[in-house]
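Continuing the batch. This is chain 6 of the set; chains 1 through 5 are on the previous pages. Same settings as before, nothing changed between runs. Recording input and output for traceability.
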Amino acid sequence: MIQNPIRKVLSSMQKNGVACLLMGGQACILYGGAEFSRDLDLAIDGAAENLVFLQSALAELQAECIAVPPFAQQYLEMGLAIHFRCQHADAAKMRIDVMSRMRGVDPFHLLWQRRTTLAQEGEAPIDLLGLPDLVQAKKTQRDKDWPMIARLLEAHYLQNSANPTATQITFWLAQMRSPMLLREIVQRFPQEGVHASAQRPLLSFAHAGDEPGLIHALREEEDRERAADRAYWLPLKQELERLRLQARS
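Output for chain 6:
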């Protein structure tokens, strides 16, 4: 169920022609991986023309930039998020975070091609980040994101395990976080599992039924992603601090 403030934001984006995809917590809710989220996160096309459309939608929502960086294309191209707070009565105090570039995530035009579109009775459809792209975007240094990835993948497996496609099997083998489900998947699809092991060596522990080894390898995999995200964000955090100091002076 989409709450009314969220509907207002999304309808304003659609009405003004903004090329954007729902991501973050609200997308996780729609995919069955979360129950609640306060904010609205959008992946957007960072092209200048689309930013004009975005500015029109934000004006309709009476949304103001609430932190650094300011709303400018250069900061989106750097990979920074820009934060807004809505004042419109139908979306009062709703926070919107927009990004056009994320670590390890493909450019927007590819995300758009792979998007998921959810039809709603009596409402406009919702375009959201495809699940594999959402999982990739969630591979951050934040503690809260890794349990969310696990829930998204488990929900997707439970929803589709009875009659999966080859693409879904490949996705699970590449991304699943649950040791129990990884062991089940490689047992159900041994040929696909052997092929996937070349790209994800930890699957060898699942094939061998070595749960302690699999748990340890999954933790190491997560640690590598967290470290890569910290390294990616280090110069961006330095830029944010520079902008904060500049704003105070």
